[in-house]
Design goal:
Length: 203
């Protein structure tokens, strides 16, 4: 009986808790103290679909044309540089050969002198072959560059077409300048060679 009486007293003391009081004491356990913020403008852009214009044939053709123009421009520069560099080396050899042959005309020379003439003449001929190969290559680079210029014009990239055309003219003009300088020295070499043949009967 004493046990039952004590249980009733304990049960009476445990009154139901009002719902608002229960919410106030437990809400902090489930509410995030740092709720997520709204996405920024930059974050929204990351989820936007690509611009349809970037996927059009017109856009892709222009990108391809731009690559073709850059490749043609680079090929022009490299080919001209190769012709210019080898032409300078070629003229150095020619000038040295002319000087040696003039010495042979002016006075008797040793066998080592003639050996040097033969060696330099061989180097000069090899350098001439290299120059001619690059000049032939330039003909095809020229065609490629002209095609790229015309394509860029048709693609509506007029400024790019004009710029490439100017680079073509500039490269061709510089190559003609190198060829002209080579020809002038070759003419001098031919005259000296004829004089050497007359005087020594070796060449």
């Amino acid at each position: 009986m004493a046990f039952r009486h004590g249980f009733k007293i304990l049960f009476r003391r445990l009154k139901p808790v009002h719902p608002l009081i229960l919410y106030g004491t437990t809400a902090s356990m489930f509410i995030n103290p740092n709720p997520p913020k709204d996405p920024t403008h930059e974050q929204k852009l990351k989820f936007e679909t690509p611009d349809a214009s970037n996927l059009s044939y017109d856009y892709l053709i222009k990108q391809s044309t731009l690559s073709a123009v850059n490749s043609a421009s680079q090929a022009l520069t490299l080919t001209y540089s190769a012709i210019e560099s080898n032409s300078k080396d070629y003229r150095v050899l020619l000038a040295r050969l002319i000087a040696l042959m003039n010495e042979a005309i002016m006075h008797p020379v040793t066998d080592s002198h003639w050996d040097e003439i033969l060696e330099i003449r061989y180097q000069m001929q090899e350098k001439k072959k290299i120059i001619m190969q690059f000049i032939l290559y330039m003909e095809y680079v020229h065609k490629m560059a002209e095609a790229a210029s015309e394509i860029s014009f048709l693609a509506g990239m007029d400024n790019l077409s004009t710029t490439l055309t100017q680079r073509i003219d500039d490269a061709l003009g510089k190559i003609e300048f190198e060829k002209s300088n080579n020809s002038k020295l070759e003419e001098e070499y031919t005259k000296v060679q004829e004089e050497t043949i007359k005087s020594s009967k070796i060449f």
